[in-house]
Amino acid sequence: MQRKIINTGDGSKTLFVPEMDEQYHSVNGALTESRYVYLERGYLCSKAINPVVLEIGFGTGLNALITALHSNSLQKPTTYITLEKYPITPNEMEKLNYGDLISADAQQVFTKLHKVPWNIKTSITPYFNLLKIKADVTTFSFTDLPPADVIYFDAFGPDKQPEMWDELIFKTLFEHSAANSILVTYSAKGEIRRRLERSGYLTERLPGPPGKRQMLRAAKPSD
Ligand SMILES: C[S@@+](CC[C@H](N)C(=O)[O-])C[C@H]1O[C@@H](n2cnc3c(N)ncnc32)[C@H](O)[C@@H]1O
Cα 115 to the chain's mean position, in Å? Predict the structure, then answer.
């Protein structure tokens, strides 16, 4: 997959895929979007004491970085499982400027997130364990994973990669997540909301990050 590094509105960089005409984050601000959609509306809203976070699309590792830093400052033991079919290269990783924008400690964590091996659960900080799985989400069996408390659904857009937003995937995620778990995504499309609802979730539209009117949060009711 051909990719280019681009700047976004808040000064953070992201990747752009010319053949899809799609970028990894909002052009209005990658760091801002990641913090708002996944951290603030997802991770920080979970009541789980030792949360399991499941991410669809590791990509640049930005969502993982932000979550790792917060799990450490909150001293909240967190297991982060992320699926990725097309890992970025070390050269691309080095051009991303999240460490420069956050802190030297963040840069160290970011490098470690990328350097640890795939498919082996690894400790990144005293409070953050990472399992990066190199796999295709559309064929992956989630059965052996621990039930997720928070799902970061961060696939390319439904119009660009519709197979990632198939209702069967939402049904599978629902089945393999914990009671009272939540799923967050930047998409606010009505059809995506209806697929989540038909999969068993209770959904709500929340105000979106800069440049997006709304986003979706879905909750799995307690049994
Ligand atoms: C919107 S980007 C993810 C952004 C990422 N969360 C981040 O913080 O950079 C979508 C990601 O899904 C990955 N992807 C695309 N198709 C996939 C598939 N079938 N299975 C797993 N990952 C896939 C892409 O390679 C890309 O990294």
Answer: 18
